[in-house]
Amino acid sequence: MTPGIFLMLALAGGLGAVVRFILDGFIRAHSKTRFAWATTIINVSGSLVLGFLTGLTIEHFVSTDVSIVIGTGFLGGYTTFSTASYETVQLIKKGRYGASFISGIVMLVVSVAAAVIGLWVGAEL
Amino acid sequence: MNTATRPSYLRWAAIALVFVGGGFGAASREGLSLAIPNLGEVPIAIPIINVVGAFLLGYLYEAVTRLDKARPTGANLKLLLGTGFCGGFTTYSSLATDTAVLFRDGLPGSAVIYALATVIIGACATWAGIAIASAVNNRSSSPRKDEQEDAT
C-alpha cells in the first residue's frame, strides 16, 4: 500500500467516524423508543454497503485501492464494534436482558445477513 | 442557534475531535491488520482489534465517569478517544462482511464461531475494562481524599 492510500484511508476513517457521530446524535434526539437503535442502524447499513463493495471488488468491478479507502477507511470508521459491545454490557448490567440480546445477537445476525445480501448483489452485477 | 444550546453532534469542536480520533483509529486498525497474518482462511486481525477496542472503550468510559463533572475534559476525552479512536479502530462492517465471505466460501461452521466468539469475547473484554477502571480508580481516589482531609 502506498503512503498516499494509507493517508486517504485515515482521512476516510475520520470522516466515517464523524458521519456516525452526527447520525447517532440525530437518531437519539429524534427517536422516542427506549432501546437505542442508532448503533444498530449504523452497523447494519455499514455492513450492507461493505458487503456490496466487497462483492464488487471480488469480481474486479472496483479496484483494491478504492475498496481500501471506502471499505476499510470510511465504512470501518463509520461502523463500530466497541460501542455495540459497551451498550450490550450496560444493558446486561441494568438487567435488560431482552434489549441486550437485540444489541448483542440480533444486531450481529442482521448485520451478517445484510453483508451476505450486499456481497451477493455486488458479485452478481 | 448559538453554541451553548447547540447539541454536541453539531458543534465543530466536537466534530473535529471525533474526526482526529477516528482517523488515528482507522490508521491503527489498518497498521495492525497488515501486521497480523490470517489464521488459515480466517482473518483474525479484525477480531483481535475489536476485542482490544471493546476493552479500551469499557475502561475509558468507566474512568471518565469518575472524572470531575464540572470540567469539560471528560466529555472531550470521550469524543476523541471513545467515539473517535475506539469507534474508528473497531469495526462492525468488517466483522459482518468477513463472516459473510466465510459463508460464501462454504465454511459455515467457521463463520458462526467467528462471529459469535467475537461478540461474546468482546462483551467480556468490555466488562473487564469497566471492572479494571473501577478498581484502579477506587484505589487511586482513596489517598486523594486523605490529602483533601489533611489540607482542611
Topology:
The complex is a heterodimer of chains A (125) and B (152).
Chain A (H helix, E strand, L loop, with lengths): L2 H28 L7 H21 L5 H15 L3 H12 L3 H28 L1
Helix pairs in contact in A: 1-3, 2-3, 2-5, 4-5
Chain B lengths: L11 H24 L9 H21 L7 H17 L3 H12 L3 H44 L1
Helix pairs in contact in B: 1-3, 2-3, 2-5, 4-5
The major beta sheet of chain B can be summarized as: none
Q: Kindly report how far apart the N and C termini of chain A lie.
A: 27 Å
Order of helices and strands of chain A: HHHHH
Q: Report the end-to-end length of chain B measured between terminal Cα atoms.
A: 44 Å
Q: What do the pLDDT scores of chain A average to?
A: 96
What is the percentage of strand-forming residues of chain A? under 5%
Number of domains of chain B: 1
Question: How many distinct helices of chain A?
Answer: 5
Give the helix proportion of chain A (percent range): over 70%
Radius of gyration of chain A: 16 Å
| Shape summary of chain A | globular
Give me the secondary-structure category of chain B: mainly alpha
The assembly state of the depicted protein chains is: heterodimer
Pair with the most extensive interface?
A-B, 56 and 59 residues
Outline of the structure:
By secondary structure, chain A is mainly α. Chain A contains five helices and no strands.
Please characterize this protein's 3D structure.
The complex is a heterodimer of chains A (125) and B (152). With 125 residues, chain A is mainly α. Chain A has one domain (3-124). Chain A has 5 helices and no strands. Chain A has helices at 3-30, 38-58, 64-78, 82-93, 97-124. The relative contact order of chain A is 0.19. Chain B is mainly alpha-helical. Chain B has one domain. Chain B contains 5 helices and no strands. Chain B has helices at residues 12-35, 45-65, 73-89, 93-104, 108-151. Residues 144-152 of chain B have low confidence and may be disordered. Chains A and B meet through helix 1, helix 2, helix 3, helix 4 and helix 5 of A and helix 1, helix 2, helix 3, helix 4 and helix 5 of B.
